C-alpha cells in the first residue's frame, strides 16, 4: 500500500512577497530660490507617504525645474523616469495632478499607454485617477484635454485682458523699476531709492560710463534692490528705461503659442503712454543721457552683449578690504625688472590717507587657499562633518508644512481668478464687478506669496549651506593633499575674501564658514 509523506517547506527558503517599487514625479516652475524648498517639501511628502506603506519600496523623486508643462521635450527628469521604467526599475508612479505631468493631451496619453504596456501605472492624486484601471482612460483624456485647453484659454484670456488695459492705459505695472514702488495700483516715487537714480543720471551726464558708475556705487556700499552689487548692465538698464521720464512702453516682450517668451522686435503691437506717472528725470536730461550713451558706445565700439568688462581672473571682484570695505583691483607690478600680479584696495589706490591697506601678491592668495583646503582635508572629521550633521538636524518640517498649505491656497486663488476671467471675457460680469473681485483675489494672492517668500528665504538659507557643505566635503575627499591652485574650486566654494591685515585674510565659504589664513 502506498504511503505519502508530506515534506514541509523550509520557511527560511520562502521568498518574502515582492514590494511594489514606487516613484514620485514633480514639476516646479518657480524661480531657482523657491525650487529648492518646493522640491524638498514634495520629496518629504512622497517619501513619508510611500514609506508608510509596508508593501511599497521608495525609489525616489524625479523632477523638473523651471520648465513649462506644455511639452515633454525638454523635461529631463520626466524622460529619466520613463527610461528607468523601461529598464524595469519602477512599478508604480505617484503624481500630484495631470497638469503637473503634461498639459498636452496627445503626449500625456502616449506616455500613459507606453507605461501601461510596461505594466507601470500612475496615480494622479488630485483627480484620483489610477491608470491601472482601464475604464479611467476616458476620464484621463477628458482631464488632460481640459488641462491643455485651460492653459491655452487662460493664456489667451490673459493676453486679451492685458491688451485692453494697454489700449486704455489702465495696465498696472506689477514690478516697478528701481526708484519707484506700487501703491494702490499706481507707480509712485520710492523716496529711499530716488536719489540713487538721480545720481546715476547726473554721473552719466558728467561723462561717466556704466562701469565707472557701478564701481562708484559699490564703493559707497549702496546695494541694489535685491541687496546685490551694481554692474554696468544694471546701471545701463536704468539709464535706458523710459519710465524715469514719466512714460511707459507696454508689451516690450510677448509669449508665443508655445508659451515661450520673446523680446518684441515688432512682431506685436506696442503701446507708448506719455505722462503715465510722476517723472524722476526731466525729458531733456533723459534724452541727453541717451545721446551720451549712444556716442560713448560708438566711440568705444561696444556692442550689446560685449563681454569686455566680465571678470577674467579668479579673485576679481571677490576681495574685500577689511579696513574700508572697498573691493580690490588686480594690477601688474615689477621687482628687479620681473613682472608679477598683485591686488590692491581701490580706496588706497585713489586716496592713501583714507585706507592704509597695501597690496598683496596674487600668488599669496593662491597659496593661502591651498593651505586652507589642505587643513580642511585633514580636519574634516572634526569640523566639516559635525557642522553638516548640525545643519541637517535643524527641523524645518513646520515651515515646509506651512509652505505646502500656502501653495495650495495660491493654487485655489489662481483657479478662482481663472474662472472670474472666463466669466468676464464671456461678458457675464460687468467691468466694475470684475475689477472689484479680481483686485480682492490679487491682494489675497500677494499676501500669500509674501508669506511664502519669507518662509522660503529662511528655509532656503539652511538648504544652501547644506548643499555647499556637501560639495566642499566631496571636494576635500577627492585628494590626500592639494598641491596646485584650482580656480574652479575657488569659484565653487568661496563666496569672497576679507583682507583683515596685510598678513592675514579670511575665506568666507559658501557653506557659512569664515576661515582665517596667515600669509
UniProtKB/TrEMBL annotation:
Residues 21-169 form the Resolvase/invertase-type recombinase catalytic domain. Residues 177-299 form the Recombinase domain. Transmembrane segments: none annotated. It holds the Pfam family Zn_ribbon_recom. CDD domains: Ser_Recombinase. Keywords: DNA recombination, DNA-binding. SMART domains: Resolvase (SM00857). This is Site-specific DNA recombinase.
Amino acid at each position: 500500500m502506498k504511503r505519502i509523506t508530506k515534506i514541509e517547506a523550509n520557511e527560511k527558503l520562502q521568498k518574502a512577497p515582492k514590494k511594489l517599487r514606487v516613484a514620485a514625479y514633480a514639476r516646479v516652475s518657480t524661480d531657482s530660490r523657491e525650487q529648492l524648498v518646493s522640491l524638498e517639501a514634495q520629496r518629504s511628502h512622497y517619501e513619508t507617504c510611500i514609506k508608510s506603506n509596508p508593501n511599497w519600496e521608495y525609489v525616489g523623486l524625479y523632477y523638473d525645474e523651471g520648465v513649462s508643462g506644455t511639452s515633454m521635450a525638454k523635461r529631463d527628469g520626466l524622460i529619466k523616469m520613463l527610461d528607468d521604467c523601461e529598464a524595469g526599475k519602477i512599478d508604480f508612479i505617484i503624481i500630484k495632478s495631470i497638469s503637473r505631468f503634461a498639459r498636452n493631451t496627445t503626449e500625456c496619453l502616449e506616455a500613459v499607454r507606453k507605461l501601461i504596456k510596461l505594466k507601470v501605472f500612475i496615480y494622479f492624486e488630485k483627480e484620483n485617477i489610477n491608470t491601472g484601471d482601464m475604464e479611467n482612460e476616458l476620464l484621463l483624456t477628458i482631464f488632460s484635454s481640459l488641462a491643455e485647453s485651460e492653459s491655452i484659454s487662460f493664456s489667451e484670456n490673459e493676453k486679451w485682458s492685458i491688451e485692453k488695459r494697454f489700449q486704455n492705459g489702465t495696465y498696472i505695472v506689477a514690478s516697478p523699476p528701481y526708484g519707484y514702488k506700487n501703491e494702490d495700483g499706481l507707480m509712485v516715487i520710492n523716496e529711499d531709492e530716488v536719489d540713487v537714480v538721480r545720481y546715476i543720471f547726473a554721473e552719466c551726464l558728467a561723462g561717466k560710463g556704466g562701469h565707472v558708475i557701478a564701481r562708484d556705487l559699490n564703493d559707497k556700499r549702496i546695494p541694489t534692490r535685491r541687496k546685490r552689487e551694481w554692474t554696468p548692465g544694471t546701471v545701463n538698464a536704468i539709464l535706458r528705461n523710459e519710465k524715469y521720464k514719466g512714460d511707459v512702453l507696454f508689451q516690450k516682450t510677448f509669449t508665443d503659442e508655445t508659451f515661450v517668451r520673446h523680446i518684441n522686435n515688432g512682431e506685436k503691437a506696442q503701446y507708448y503712454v506719455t505722462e503715465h506717472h510722476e517723472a524722476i528725470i526731466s525729458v531733456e536730461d533723459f534724452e541727453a543721457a541717451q545721446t551720451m550713451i549712444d556716442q560713448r558706445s560708438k566711440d568705444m565700439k561696444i556692442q550689446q552683449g560685449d563681454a569686455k568688462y566680465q571678470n577674467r581672473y579668479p579673485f576679481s571682484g571677490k576681495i574685500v578690504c577689511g579696513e574700508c570695505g572697498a573691493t580690490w583691483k588686480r594690477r601688474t607690478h615689477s621687482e628687479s625688472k620681473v613682472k608679477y600680479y598683485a591686488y590692491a584696495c581701490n580706496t588706497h589706490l585713489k586716496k592713501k590717507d583714507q585706507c592704509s591697506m597695501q597690496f598683496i601678491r596674487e600668488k599669496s592668495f593662491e597659496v593661502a587657499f591651498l593651505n586652507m583646503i589642505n587643513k580642511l582635508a585633514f580636519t574634516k572629521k572634526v569640523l566639516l562633518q559635525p557642522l553638516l550633521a548640525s545643519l541637517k538636524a535643524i527641523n524645518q518640517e513646520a515651515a515646509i508644512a506651512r509652505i505646502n498649505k500656502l501653495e495650495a491656497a495660491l493654487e485655489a486663488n489662481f483657479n478662482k481668478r481663472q474662472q472670474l476671467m472666463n466669466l468676464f471675457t464671456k461678458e457675464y460680469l460687468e467691468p466694475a464687478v470684475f475689477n472689484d473681485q479680481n483686485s480682492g483675489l490679487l491682494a489675497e494672492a500677494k499676501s500669500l506669496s509674501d508669506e511664502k517668500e519669507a518662509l522660503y528665504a529662511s528655509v532656503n538659507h539652511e538648504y544652501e549651506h547644506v548643499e555647499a557643505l556637501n560639495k566642499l566635503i566631496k571636494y576635500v575627499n577627492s585628494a590626500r593633499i592639494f598641491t596646485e591652485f584650482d580656480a574652479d574650486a575657488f569659484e565653487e566654494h568661496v563666496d569672497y575674501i576679507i583682507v583683515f591685515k596685510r598678513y592675514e585674510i579670511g575665506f568666507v565659504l559658501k557653506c557659512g564658514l569664515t576661515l582665517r589664513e596667515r600669509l
